[in-house]
Structures are given as structure tokens and as C-alpha cells.
Amino acid sequence: MLSSTTNVRISNVFCGFCHEISVGSLGKYESEQDLDDIIVTNCTFSGTSIDVRIKSWKSQLK
């Protein structure tokens, strides 16, 4: 999911063998819009190192 994604429902998903649910990369550019209303329910993760990943950048604003 990238900038300005809204109203996402992820449910009843099997993630396995090194794949996960990823959000981002976020915050690299000042013009990016927020994500909103992202819901993950009733998912199964097997053999993943990270189940849900939110990738972000350190703020460039001063």
C-alpha cells in the first residue's frame, strides 16, 4: 500500500514462506498523502520473518 490509500480491508488471507503484508514506503516525499482506515483481520502467517510491515522514512522536514 502506498501514499493516499484508504478504506482497505484484508481478511481471511494465508501468508507464508517469507511473504507478508506490507504498507509503504511512507514519508520519503513531503507531497505524500496519509494512509487511512487500513484493517487486517483473521489472517494466518506461517514461515514469515515479519507478519505486517510498515516501511517508513525518517522525516526530511526541519
Summarize this, please?
The chain has one domain. The chain contains no helices and six strands.
Span from first to last CA? 26 Å
* Largest sheet composition: 2 strands, parallel
* Uncertain ranges: none
Our count of helices gives 0
What general form does the structure show?
flat
| Helix content estimate | under 10%
N-to-C SSE string, H for helix and E for strand: EEEEEE
Strand order of the largest sheet: 1-4
- If you average the pLDDT, what whole number results? 85
Residue fraction in strands:
over 45%
Number of strands: 6
Number of domains: 1
Instruction: Decide which structural class fits the backbone.
Output: mainly beta
The radius of gyration is 13 Å
Protein name: Polygalacturonase/glycoside hydrolase family protein
Subcellular location: Secreted, Cell wall
Family: Belongs to the glycosyl hydrolase 28 family.
InterPro entries: Glyco_hydro_28, Pectin_lyas_fold, Pectin_lyase_fold/virulence
